[in-house]
Amino acid sequence: MSIDVRNQTVLITGANRGIGKVILETAIEQGAEKVYAAVRNVDSVAGLVDKHGDKVVPIVIDLQLPQTIADAASVATDVTIVINNAGIARTNDLLSPQAFSDYEAEHKTNVLGLLHLAQAFAPVLKSNGGGALVQLNSVVSIKSFVDFATYSASKAASYSLTQALREKLALQQTSVVSVHPGPIKTEMAEAVGLADVAESPALVAEAIFAALRDDQFHVFPDSMAKQFEAAYAGFAKAFVEAELSEQA
User: Fold this and answer.
1) Separation of alpha carbons 202 and 25, rounded Å
2) What is the CATH number of domain 9-240?
3) What pLDDT is attached to residue 247?
4) How far apart are the C-alpha atoms of 125 and 171, rounded to whole Å?
5) Closest Cα to residue 150, out of 100, 190, 188, 87?
6) Cα-based distances in Å from 99 to 149, 150, 152, 154
7) Which site from 177, 205, 227, 241 is most exposed, i.e. has the minimal number of CB atoms within 10 Å?
8) Residue 243 has what pLDDT?
């Protein structure tokens, strides 16, 4: 189903900085009627409210606190596009004791956060005609990187859930998009030492709204991501995006 962001009401998690902030700005530039800036601290989006006025509505969502997600869904009842951008990443030695607590935090945010968000907002999207759910995954959901092994594992799990959500939510006419960026210029990229190879977050934002218009499930927005796409596209079409029987 093709969805144009014009005149839509969008909710974006992690909208106060990095990719999320650019997605918010791009949504408004492309004609979104309203954007819920879903963040842990609403004061962090004060500048966006000052700039865009009542087009930006701050709302509290902490992906590690399911009640905040449920509360947001009870308020943002007019949402037609949900974009789950928020996430956390840790660098670690996979064989160190710290790897356990890092993975627990990453899994709670990146995987369980997605599931709570989907369960809370699926009924909202259905009541508003279907709409779309967009999940920011990563190239590390396809290929694990040793310095980000626990993060890679959490994103592989979120990608798996995204595939299942695509099939499940299609029953209510809700489109699902899985976005797989490589290194993008954000505070997260700087924190994990990827700033030198990172590309503009605008590539991600523009690719998301193009994918919604073109009814695409997979999105590979930047240079590194497109290398993955070239190698992965055949498998994705034949298995991930195909209608396969579980008994096949």
Assistant:
1) 9
2) 3.40.50.720
3) 44
4) 12
5) 100
6) 9, 7, 12, 12
7) 227
8) 81
Tell me the pTM: 0.95
180 within 8 A of 155, measured Cβ to Cβ:
no
Handedness of CA 216, 219, 79, 70 (dihedral sign): positive
The candidate with the shortest Cα–Cα distance to 25, out of 39, 5, 40, 43, is: 5
| Distances from the Cα of 86 to the Cα of 202, 234, 246, angstroms | 16, 29, 32
Residues constituting the chain: 248
Nearest to 8 by CA among 25, 33, 35: 33
Residue 34 φ/ψ, nearest 5 degrees: -155, 145
DSSP per position, 53-115: GGGEEEEE--TT-HHHHHHHHHH-TT--EEEE---------TTSTHHHHHHHHHHIIIIIHHH
Task: Identify the residue whose tokens are 């009924």.
Answer: 123
In tens, the pLDDT along 82-114 reads: 999 999 999 999 999 999 999 999 999 999 999
Closest CA to 189 of 179, 200, 178: 200
d(CA 6, CA 121): 20
Measured CA to CA, the distance from residue 160 to residue 18 in angstroms comes to 24
